[in-house]
Sequence to fold (403 residues):
Amino acid sequence: MGSSGKSVLLIIGGGISAYKSLELIRRLKDRGLGVRVILTSAGSQFVTALSAGSLSGNKVYQDLFDLTDESEMGHIVLSRSADLIVVAPATADLMAKLANGIANDLASTTLLATDKPVLLAPAMNVRMWTHPATRRNAATLAADNIYFVGPNDGDMACGEYGPGRMAEPDEIVVAVERVLGAERGVLHGLKALVTAGPTHEPLDPVRYLANRSSGKQGYAIAGALRQAGAETILVSGPVEIAPPPGVKWIRVETARQMLAACEAALPADIAVCAAAVADWRPEMAANAKLKKQGGAAASIGLTENPDILATIARHASRPSLVIGFAAETDDLISNATAKRVRKGCDWIVANTVGAGYEAMGGDNNRVHLIKEGGTEAWPEMSKVDVARRLAVRIGEKLNGRAA
Ligand SMILES: Cc1cc2nc3c(=O)[nH]c(=O)nc-3n(C[C@H](O)[C@H](O)[C@H](O)COP(=O)(O)O)c2cc1C
Fold:
């Protein structure tokens, strides 16, 4: 750990620009950051462990199966030992592995095992960077809340010109400080509670009532708020999405569990209730699997679930900004406007669901932001962009600055 109290785990991949990463080690240390280095096998063709170790002042890690390292510091511990993982140069290969969850060496296993933010400084030949496979991988990684710095346009070691040059060490340091600085993020010092996903309301041990919510929008919002510096707690119903880096992740199943987790997370400054909480649950959840009853029609009695958004909005520890989501099949604006008042929340993010609209489950969203003073109609954009824009609005509201 350096004098700033923060540290970086630097993964040096196998590219010509690895030489710049030696300079990067010095610049990071100049900023008071502790630096540990993982050198890939290809990376060691370009720079030596001796140089990286001398500059960082720490042992350089190279082999997943180095038993001495595993007993001193296993790869899982190593992956979480720093505040941020920086990959520079991030080769096409390392990007492909991370985008696809491949973990077949120390660097890729560490990247998969970490719960810390990851910043990539890609460096590769322009054709490699513009190849559809790398484009796909970059998009996947961005959606997974992986941070990027560069690449820049310019002359390349291979003699070609175009995007693919690794960002300069100074630019990487600025990006590192931005990510770590969460501290300087506009929402730093604020605590955000985000709910996401559906709830499952059990009928018996094998059946439940649910809805089509994918959780993508809520997860993207949790990621955007974290990136803007907020300490972020994500209370999630059952979905198949990994939590954004640096977010505290609490998984629940039912509406009542979600409410309990949210109340336990208060006080908070911001609450964004993006979960599609089931309005009703079966009156009784049977302890044993329900059986057919000789052709007789079955009926399920329903009882209302607690209203999480209204509860948070009227809570003794009410966050200063409470934002709800409204998914409506018709009369979007009037229904959502009425919901804002009824629930006692500050803003409603309204989207249309149903025939022709893919808000539930899709990657894009078209929303209206409904406030007391009026409504903003946002164009269709990715859920990640909706989340970023919402974080900007929250920053403007709470700090008078853009996130
Ligand atoms: C001279 C030379 C330069 C290379 N430069 C790059 C590069 O800048 N970016 C890249 O993605 N791959 C580059 N490669 C290919 C990688 O080294 C190769 O894909 C390797 O498997 C990457 O391993 P790693 O991702 O574990 O570091 C280069 C290979 C050679 C021989």
In short: Residues 13-17, 40, 42-43, 89, 91-94, 107, 123-124, 128 surround flavin mononucleotide (CB under 6 Å). The chain has two domains: 7-184, 191-399. The chain has 14 helices and 23 strands. The mean pLDDT is 90.
